[in-house]
Write a structure and sequence with these properties.
This is Ribosomal RNA small subunit methyltransferase H. Strands 3-2-1-4-5-7-6 form a seven-stranded mixed beta sheet, with helices on both faces. With 303 residues, the protein is α/β, with parallel strands linked by helices. It has two domains: 181 residues, Vaccinia Virus protein VP39 (Rossmann fold), CATH 3.40.50; 79 residues, Orthogonal Bundle (DNA polymerase, domain 1), CATH 1.10.150.170. It is globular, with a radius of gyration of 20 Å. It is built from 13 helices and seven strands. The longest helix is centred in the C-terminal third of the chain and has 16 residues. The structure holds S-adenosylmethionine. The site of S-adenosylmethionine has 23 residues, from helix 2 and strand 2. The site of S-adenosylmethionine (SAM) has 23 residues, from helix 2 and strand 2.
Amino acid sequence: MSHIPVLLNEVIKFLDPKPGNIILDATVDGGGHAIAIAKKILPDGKLIGIEQDNNILEKLSSKIENQYPELKNSNILINGNFRDIDKLLKPLNINALDGALYDLGMSSLQLEESKRGFTFLKDEPLLMTYKFPIEPGDLTAKEIINTWPEKEIADILFHYGEERYSRRIARNIVRRREKKPFQSTFELAALVKQSVPYRPFHRIHPATKTFQALRIAVNNELEAISESFEKAWQFLIPGSRLVIISFHSLEDRIAKNFLKSKKQKGEADIKTPKPITATEEEIYLNPRSRSAKLRAAVKLKII
Ligand SMILES: C[S@@+](CC[C@H](N)C(=O)[O-])C[C@H]1O[C@@H](n2cnc3c(N)ncnc32)[C@H](O)[C@@H]1O
């Protein structure tokens, strides 16, 4: 299955890219949004796409080369973490942006092809890093569950997964790892399943929240998001737009509070009093859009 960009029409509407604009796509991934944006900023605009996963970035680069040669000069792809945008934009001599897009979380490419353990539906090593290639010393899910204290694991599951059985799961993880450390997603998913009460009509797999929590912890996602929004805001010029798509309540809360704080300071006009969600039709065509929430704001001139 290929990646279908979420809320694409709405992204274009709220970002409103125009010829000549410089737009940041902080989570460029397979380029679903980026290519549509790049077409709007021709002939002399620039789309700066940041992505932590270099495997994906290389695929996007050849996709542009082969399928969209007309966009080649307007796309600048950078492998890095969006929390470092200031450092990443500096060598490009870019000091101002006309728009910035964040489409947070993991991509369907990572879920389906990365073999890094993002899903409990496949038996894969427990890495869960967006970053690829990883380097020695990079945190992985395996390190967390095989070495971190029980309380810290429980706290992660509770705070990042909103998992009500966090203590019980953490206790069982520690008991089990003393006999045999965890290696794979199936081992972890089986343990979580055994640790929570059986509910025949449960809508989601019992390991969903644990996997979400570990992924957030491994990638230090919430801090990276907060730090990056602040930095991106400094680059946005008056009249430019920030568009954020989130996929769970923790991300959405950060986006909402960030925009609210800018509004309170008179720096932002929020264009989405309520977050925009996908239509029934989009959800049918792309189930990943079910939990997407889009928030957008225009940066105001500070007088
Ligand atoms: C939901 S996907 C984006 C999909 C993209 N908008 C599209 O339509 O093709 C999110 C991407 O953001 C990347 N990502 C997540 N956190 C990141 C970070 N801190 N810095 C850079 N990339 C990040 C992930 O690796 C993933 O590929």
